[in-house]
Amino acid sequence: MPRPASCGPCALEPGYAATMDDHQLLRYSRHILLDELGIEGQRKLLAAHALVIGAGGLGSPVALYLGTAGVGRITLVDHDVVDLTNLQRQIAHPLARVGQPKAESARQSILAINPDVEVIARVQRADAKLLDQLVADADVVLDCSDNFATRHAVNAACVRHGRPLVSGAAIASRISTAPTTASASARIPRPEVFSERKSSSMMMMGKWKRMAVRLSAG
User: Fold this and answer.
1) Which residues contact 206 (CB under 8 A, 6 or more apart)?
2) Where are the beta strands (DSSP E) in 90-139?
3) Domain co-membership, 85 together with 154
4) What pLDDT is stored for residue 41 in this prediction?
5) What are phi and psi of 81, to 5 degrees?
6) What does the DSSP 8-state code read for residue 190?
7) Which domain holds residue 80?
8) Nearest one of 19, 66, 17 to 44, comparing CA atoms
9) Does a structural domain hold residue 63?
10) Could you tell me if residue 110 is inside a domain?
11) Model confidence over 149-184: pLDDT tens digits?
12) CA dist., res. 75 & res. 121, Å (int)
């Protein structure tokens, strides 16, 4: 399906949504029945472009749900390959794709469910140069990366280009998400700040452990 020339899901050309065919109306009928979404909302999803950074434990379900929801264009960025140890949590990747790039594997999984969407796999590290190129062309950015350096680079790119950012994180048994608008106030601390805090916390934990050992010995 061709995308309108205007960038952004809320600036649709008149009559663009009328190109939804009977197959699409049936596929997305449960969305269309929702008052909060309806046919206009589904039309906006079909015209939208989502950029997903990371195709691992967080990126796998995110990418699959975006594809099944009918987001018209999805760009997946991940430089890593599928490993056997990934399979118990990274649901976009089957056993047969061990050793393949995660971005390409996730692309195949999305298209197997919904071949009508356009999925672009970028087997690259999400550095500042690449993000400047990709973020500018996206309507929304979803940060599913697993390191602070990438998170900082994604956040900075979204601030520069004025794109909304949704960040997700999984730590042990806790999961958190934080949708933000792109503004200077949304900038996160530099990666080294987290490293300093982590080192300080580890030093404190070491002191408490040594104290506990001395107390138990006494």
Assistant:
1) none
2) 118-122
3) yes
4) 95
5) -115, 160
6) P
7) 48-187
8) 17
9) yes
10) yes
11) 999 999 999 999 999 999 987 665 555 555 666 444
12) 6
